[in-house]
Structure formats: C-alpha cells, structure tokens
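Researcher: Here's a chain I'd like modeled. Treat it as a single chain, no partners, no ligands.
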Amino acid sequence: MARDPIMDPSGLARAAERLASLIPGYSGYKSRERLREEDRAVRDAVTRSLGIAMGRLERALENCIRSLPPSDVEEADGILRALGRHRDRIRFAPAGYASLFSRRRIQTPELQHLLTLDAGLWSVLEELDRVASEWDEASRNGETEWPGAKLKDTVIELEEILDERESYLRSS
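Model: Modeled as a single isolated chain. Structure tokens:
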C-alpha cells in the first residue's frame, strides 16, 4: 500500500518546512538557528574530548603522584581544576542569542565567527590530548617526568580562546 506523502512524518515535516519558508524572515531565522545548533554540537564534542584528556591526565597523575615533588603535584591539581572550569565554560557558553530587550540582534556573520572560535578550540584540544596521552603512556612505563610547561601553555591558549569568545559576544 502506498504511503500518503502528507501523512508520512518525514513528508509532513518537509511540507511544514516548505510552508514556513513562505513566511518573511523565516529562512534567515532558520539559517541562524542551524548555525547555533552546529556551534552547540562543536562545543559538546570539545567538552567530551576535554573530559577524555582530563581523564588521561588524572590517570597519569595517579601513577606518578608518589615520585613527583609536592610542588608539581599542586601544579598538576591546579591545572586539572582549571581544565574542569574551562570544560564548564565551554559546556555552558552562550549560544549566540541576544537578550530579550537588546536593540541589536546577533546575525549570521557573528554566529559564523563564534563557530570559528569554537572550532579553534579543537587545535588547542589536540595539543592537550597529545601531551596528556604522552604523559599517561610514560607514567605507565614508570617514567615520572612532569610536562608542566606544555600543559600550562595549552591551558593559557584555551583561556585566551574562551576569553575572546566571551568578549566577542559582549561586543556584538
């Protein structure tokens, strides 16, 4: 038996989308909403990957904690706490909506810039994951060298991108 395209859920959705596209301003709204969804998906993926890298760092710290000097252990703990805060900043970052009473609305170019900034988190995250993986692997082999300088630099880069994102949203 043939399906009625209007009664088919996917056909109904397409029909509703076509009908909504006739409304003035809807297509612009929809394209901005798609960019917000993409941005959210990128931030969710970055948050998950950051959690994995943090897990590697924690595991490496557990393996090395007895052989590291107390100052390095404190520094590692501070870095892990900072990464946890940054993970929350990424997870709960504004999605590019203007406030209700704002005169200026966030448009497509601003949303594309936010998406570019969030995608820039990937390069920093790749470096962090590389350092975390190397330290995790080395700690399992009995090596206890603390990669503090590399981790600090990576955390600083992460902070800079997040600060730039927040200031961009404030200025938009």
